[in-house]
Amino acid sequence: MDWIMILVAMLGALVVLLALGLPVAFAFIAVNVVGAFFILGGENGLVQMARNATRSVSNFQLAPIPLFILMGEILFQSRVAHRAIDAIERIVTRVPGRLSVVTVFGGTIFSALSGSTIANTAMLGSTLMPSMLKKGYHPTLAMGPIMASGAIAMLIPPSALAVLLGSLAGISISKLLVAGILPAILLSTLFVILIVSASVAKPDLAPADDLPDMTLWERWRPFCIYVLPLSGIFMVVIGSLLIGIASPTDAAALGCLAAVVASAAYRSLSLDNLIAAVRETVLLTVMIMFIIAASQTFSQILSFSGATSGLIGLINGWDLTALQVLVGMILILLFLGCVIDQVSMLMVTIPIFIPLAKAVGIDELVLGVVYLLTMEIALLTPPFGLLLFVMRGVVPESIRMKQIYAAVAPFLTIKLLVLALVVAVPALGTWLPALITR
Question: Are 159 and 177 contacting, i.e. CB atoms less than 8 angstroms apart?
């Protein structure tokens, strides 16, 4: 069978199964079973598929995924991170749009602790949204920062999706985890500039709001107690990677240990919390492992059928530059982000994009950061952006989806700008990881 027909048939079958509501992993497994039988050689192909699945999930490089998830779940279930938000609110004063700025600072800090965009957005929404609406903030300036900063967890370690991307794409996981830090800081900075500018230009968006007079120690005491010690967890994870004394797995294990110690020190760790954290970790890890197992066979079928090499040859025949190919990949990812989830984006495109990127000389870390940014944008892109629906679940019934779309639009523009900057200035994604090598 012609490679074009095989490629169209496999991708078409995936689209149909996903449209019918079949879970991502099972949709890929169904396509793999048929592809392995007809392309890899009947019964031998099915045996090879089983071997691929076993080999892929027994890879030790995947160990950081459950450990990073567990670390975030422990901090989330023990509600230690909620106290940090209250502490941050005390030290942000005399700033236009104060609570929205607090949201960005808190969301960025919690992103460095949880690695979960959903948990981050839900926590910020339930903690800060009622207070902002009660004080007269316009829903646009209340919801936008929550969704935008909640999604930053995609970029900042401990990002389980970054580990998944690195393992599937063959990119150094430690370098990829570090590569997202500078773009994430840039995003947060631009969010604050946008909020302050909008609040100054239109004061009715964010009424004047400040805390009662406090002594300097009263203002900073909660920060020293609840934020600085938690930031130590981030330093343990990232510092050990940058210094080179720990692998991603070691760093994730150290992060878990630090999270347990911190929760216990705050007297927030209970047996129920720990069981809930482990349960959620197991559920998410099993789902991710199914996805990884399915992805390996899917890639092998495309490669064996000649679809991967055929597509690379076709694109090379167009004599495109590496920049043009990268821009084309970004446009495809942004389009896919409007209609499918992030994991599906990875599994559909990685078997094609990674060999193509190597063929034209695209830096793997730049491509990795581009993937993370486009997946982050996909979380906020109408009509199916996951965080849009998370936001809908925590706001009052009177707020419509149209208002949620309007609230996120300015922040999406900033994310697209940072994506363009990463492409134009690759050092944004490669400078910090280069320190690991040194």
Answer: yes
